[in-house]
Amino acid sequence: MTDTDKWKKRFLRELKPQHKLLWFYILDDCNHAGIWDVDIEVASIRVGEELIYDMLPQSFLDKIVIFDNGDKWFIPEFIDFQYGELNPNSNVHKSVIALLQKYNLEGYLKGSQTLPEGVQDKAKDIVIVKDKAKAKRFAKPIIEDIIAYCHERNNMVDPQKFFDYYSSNGWKVGKNPMKDWKAAVRTWEKNTTTTQTKSKVEQSLDTWQQARQMINK
Q: Of 101, 113, 179, 184, which residue is least crowded by CB atoms under 10 Å?
């Protein structure tokens, strides 16, 4: 069941396209209690857009409850729309209530007069999520890093050429921002090996052709 009035809501209208996609993805990927196991990297792949936690608007963050050290997000509006007021006598609602009680999330539901005690401070969890996002964020290497890695792999990649190429294009792979420069080095390594192998074959063909011409004279 989906909310047919969602496009009329100011919250959704004001989101950037990638954040709209993330919102819908979370609603589809969360469990039946509106709890999502956070994986921004997988979400980025599935929505086809690079998602960065620091770039989420405050209006988006206000719609979620971050808990479990930032590893889980809860969407209170999911419960309101899917079930309305939860009834402990309803078999359908019992498992939802059990999950909310497990994580002490009942206080976040609409109409609740008390805030949950067990959920950690939201601001603290936001900091944790940001720290995790920063840990995964791409860091541009310096030329010394590339030289050391190429030496470690004993490849034929020219570190300076590699560094200059990606510095000039803003460290992008195609149209997408680079995520792992070491993986890019390994790709160059394969291409360099292929080019060298091709050159050797071409040299052998040239030698053979030269020998044939000498014989035919």
A: 113
